[in-house]
UniProtKB/TrEMBL annotation, chain A:
Keywords associated with the record: Signal
Keyword Signal: yes
The name this protein goes by in its record: Amidohydrolase family protein
Ranges of residues in domain Amidohydrolase-related: 279-384
UniProtKB/TrEMBL annotation, chain B:
The protein, known as: Amidohydrolase
Domain of life: Bacteria
InterPro entries noted in UniProt: Amidohydro-rel, Metal-dep_hydrolase_composite, Metal_Hydrolase, Metallo-dep_Hydrolase
Keyword Endoplasmic reticulum: no
Coiled coil: none
Presence of the UniProt keyword Signal in the record: yes
Organism: Bowmanella yangjiangensis
Segments for region (Disordered): 451-470
């Protein structure tokens, strides 16, 4: 206990010592808040949080000034559905914490919890954050279980990475989900309903080791579903064809407490009004526009724009190693009908709202965590990139393993072997 | 039973003796006609769309060989480019298109596609890209797997792709023949085959073959992979010698028996003869270094390394040996040999004087290859590599055309070349730019402004989303 307190205290001290007060000056600031966009704006950052934003703000003494004249300033981007921090190399290179082979302890998968598995030293964090991503929702990618486990929100900063453990529970009701549930939606949905009935029957009280239990789910799995059935934990449901999306909306109608988001919603545009009416936000992977399976026949890159036009809150950013593609995906969604401002919202504030972290993240507002990006130009343009990223108010090193490899080989004309050359 | 057999044998011997006697009587053996191998048994039946005289004016032109013309014009007719410049005269009946604010480029050529061999909807029924039954399958031809109804062809067309190479997968050391096609939907693959394009041969380095065959009799290591290629080339050399000997003896009137056809060795010998171009899937720099020696050992040409994730580490050697690298802008980390992928790979290869190609290997990536080039160009420029957009467009058209052996026909906006071109709504290095009009051999193959003209594959007919914007 003593040890823990000491560790905590040291952590706090080191944070306070590191926190530099910064003024980002002269940029075109997209606050993504009610303040809108501010030309030639100043963002004051004190102790890792935003103190003020506006034009002509006086810069207090001892604030380091970062010149953003001619640049675009946005909130830090949020990976909407990733496995960042859980997978280093995808195939044939050892443990991948984003995948799970079902075991008796958790046959239904709901007890899986990625907050134990996140590795802040994972190289994907550096690679992603220099591309403007400061947070990511991260979860399991392959479980072959009814539920895909509990995901977390992580910061890509240098410390305090676990922002929100147990942030969401995953569920797939697409073809893949049906396959894992015995091959049919006719089995999948009764299993989901049963799992909910068992969790609801506990009336909010988790089973202890001593409790007698005759349910179908394991104790660990049913306990993990309690916050889901009470609406305290977001349920993210991957549904693709229109009829599956309708099933999800009907499920929410049967379980009104449920806090629900749709993932992928490939044919969402066909039922956009119903999604909007149910107030369910969606996380889109807007690129796939091919009929990869019979549950995504009507896939189109116009999906994001059509959902947005119907009043659905849209998030974009389903990737892991190449999280930077999310800006390109949003740009392509814009080229296919999504308003630009909503494209940027899909990478920032919408995702913060979806995961219930908008009190601290997702926009540049007084009191929020100072995660922000200074861009060379339009963040949704393929040729533009971040010039400086701030996370928790700290200007991060704009370096990754990849930039070091680049620098090592930029000049191939060397007299000594490359590995003996310092970058 | 036994008796009968003996009788037959006797009869056979007698017949031969009679024939021999006849030959002797004529005093000269009749020479059997020379057995030759038909090298084009599945010929192209491609027919271009009508190509009326068309003039696109007042447009920003990237000519694909490094030049940029502002307020330029391009005239094309009967499938060929007739004129490029700022002062272009057009016939009175020419279709004139005002390109104000728009950009005109050569059509994009994807050097690495699996459209049709891994068609959508995907699944075992459409998994036709890897003949993963033994490590060397040079006898298989991708064109015999391709489903021309793959909706991916139409999507790629909307992304400005006018030609593409379709390859077998990378499970095998030698995966089989590739084929280069025009991206114009046809009923059979022969309807799409690029006339007179040489065949390619897909080969693969590294992790994939050893993973696939590690428990299926090998190879299970990289050294096993290399032994496999070497034996295959040695066998092909032997096969070549047999056919050469046969041809020589035939020429000398010796009436030789032709060697037994071997479809695997036909293709491999085609590489050694310089008729078939090798496109080799390799990620690691050291793997590519070994392959450069291998090609010298057996005296053949590797036209391109495919993926070449570490090409930036040996770009100088690739330049010296004149081997192209077909690359992604930013894919990395999905396996160990992709772990050192960097965003500047393409511009760094270009900077070293080697041939850089932007490829897709993806039915989504192929729709936005211009954006892949844009990302690579931006990343290169930020690393201090000074490349213009006009020069960078070579990655999308001229260089892939060179690697496929079709640069004499397409890949740049030069007079006399095929009128394969794309009119973009804006600067194609922008995320927001879209291909508005795509011409293949001067025929308007895609017109974004006219939704009723968008091609819809048979598979998509009658399905949700039929004819929708994609």
């Amino acid at each position: 206990m003593k040890k823990t307190s000491l560790a905590l205290l040291t952590g706090l001290l080191s944070l306070a010592a590191q926190a530099e007060n910064i003024a980002v000056v002269g940029g075109f600031v997209h606050t993504m808040s009610a303040q809108g966009s501010v030309d030639n704006g100043t963002v004051l950052i004190r102790d890792g949080r935003i103190e003020a934003i506006g034009q002509g703000i006086e810069i207090p003494a001892h604030f380091r000034v970062i010149d953003a004249k001619g640049k675009i300033v946005t909130p830090g981007l949020i990976g909407a559905y990733t496995s960042v921090g859980l997978v280093e190399v995808g195939s044939s290179a050892g443990t991948v914490d984003a995948s799970y082979k079902p075991q008796d302890f958790s046959k239904a998968g709901s007890a899986l919890d990625v907050s134990y598995a996140i590795n802040p030293d994972n190289s994907v964090l550096d690679v992603s954050r220099i591309e403007g991503f400061t947070l990511a929702a991260t979860g399991m990618s392959s479980t072959h279980t009814l539920f895909g486990g509990q995901g977390a929100i992580i910061s890509l900063g240098d410390s305090d990475n676990l922002v929100k453990p147990k942030a969401f529970m995953s569920l797939s009701v697409n073809n893949g989900g049906a396959d894992d549930a015995g091959g049919s939606r006719a089995s999948l949905w009764p299993q989901v309903e049963n799992a909910f009935a068992e969790a609801e029957a506990l009336n909010g009280k988790a089973l202890s080791a001593k409790d007698e239990w005759h349910g179908y789910l394991s104790k660990a799995d049913v306990n993990a579903l309690i916050p889901v059935v009470t609406g305290k934990m977001l349920l993210v449901v991957d549904a693709r064809r229109a009829s599956d999306i309708r099933q999800v909306l009907a499920f929410k109608a049967r379980h009104p407490k449920l806090n629900l988001a749709l993932l992928r919603a490939t044919e969402g545009w066909r039922v956009a009004d119903e999604i909007a009416k149910a107030g369910v936000p969606v996380i889109l992977d807007p690129e796939p526009n091919l009929p990869y399976a019979f549950d995504m026949l009507a896939s189109t890159m116009a999906n994001a724009g059509r959902l947005d036009a119907a009043g659905v809150q849209v998030s974009i950013g389903v990737e892991t190693h190449n999280l930077r593609l999310a800006t390109q995906h949003a740009g392509n969604a814009v080229a296919n009908g999504l308003p630009w401002q909503d494209g940027l919202a899909a990478l920032t504030i919408n995702t913060a709202k979806l995961f219930g972290i908008d009190k601290d993240y997702g926009s540049l507002e007084k009191g929020k965590v100072a995660d922000l990006v200074i861009w060379s130009g339009d963040p949704l343009e393929a040729m533009q990139a971040p010039e400086q990223v701030l996370i928790n108010g700290e200007a991060i090193k704009m370096e990754s393993r990849q930039t070091k490899l680049r620098d090592r080989y930029l000049n191939l004309k060397r007299d000594t072997p490359h590995q003996y050359m310092r970058p | 039973m036994k008796k009968q057999q003996t009788g037959r044998l006797l009869l056979a011997t007698l017949t031969m003796a009679v024939l021999a006697a006849c030959g002797q009587k004529a005093d000269k053996q009749p020479t059997a006609p020379l057995v030759e191998i038909n090298k084009d048994p599945y010929p192209s039946t491609y027919k271009a769309l009508p190509s009326p005289a068309t003039l696109i004016t007042n447009v920003s032109i990237l000519d694909g060989i490094g030049g940029q013309i502002e307020k330029g014009s391009v005239l094309f007719q009967d499938g060929k480019i007739v004129a490029v410049g700022t002062q272009v005269e057009a016939p009175a009946d020419a279709v004139v298109i005002d390109g104000k604010g728009k950009w005109l480029t050569p059509g994009i050529i994807d050097a690495h596609s699996h459209l049709g061999v891994y068609a959508t909807p995907d699944g075992p029924s459409h998994s036709d890209g890897n003949e993963a039954t033994k490590p060397v399958t040079a006898q298989v031809w991708a064109e015999h797997s391709i489903w021309p109804q793959d909706p991916g062809f139409r999507r790629a067309l909307a992304g400005g792709v006018t030609s593409l190479q379709i390859l077998p997968g990378s499970a095998n050391l030698v995966g089989g023949r590739s084929v280069t096609v025009k991206n114009l939907p046809g009923r059979t693959i022969q309807d799409m085959k690029f006339p007179d394009a040489p065949y390619g041969l897909k080969m693969a380095c590294g992790e994939n073959p050893k993973r696939v065959y590690g428990n299926k009799g090998g190879p299970s290591t990289r050294m096993g992979n290399v032994a496999g290629y070497r034996q295959a080339w040695a066998d092909a050399q032997d096969y070549q010698r047999k056919w050469d000997k046969y041809a020589e003896e035939h020429k000398a009137g010796k009436n030789p028996t032709p060697p037994k056809r071997d479809l695997t060795l036909d293709t491999l010998a085609g590489v050694l003869n310089g008729e078939i171009l090798v496109h080799m899937h390799c990620y690691r720099a050291d793997d590519m270094g070994t392959m450069l020696d291998l090609m010298k050992e057996f005296d053949y040409k590797i036209a391109s390394f495919q993926h070449a994730v570490e090409a930036y580490k040996i770009a100088d050697r690739l330049a010296t040996d004149n081997v192209c690298s077909a690359m992604w802008a930013d894919w990395w980390g999905f396996k160990m040999e992709a772990y050192d992928g960097i965003r500047e790979n393409i511009p760094m290869v270009h900077q070293a004087g080697a041939c850089a190609i932007v490829h897709s290997d993806s039915d989504l990536g192929i729709q936005r290859l211009n954006q892949e080039a844009a990302k690579a160009l931006g990343d290169g420029q930020r690393a201090g590599i000074d490349i213009s957009k006009a020069v960078a467009w070579q990655w999308l058209s001229a260089n892939p055309a060179k690697s496929l052996g079709i640069f004499d026909k397409t890949g740049s906006l030069e007079v006399g070349k095929n009128a394969d071109l794309v009119l973009w709504s804006a600067d194609p290095f922008s995320t927001y730019a879209q291909a508005e009009r795509v011409y293949i051999d001067g025929g308007l193959a895609f017109d974004r402004q006219s939704p009723e003209s968008w091609p819809v594959s048979d598979f998509e007919l009658g399905q949700p989303g039929e004819g929708d914007v994609k």
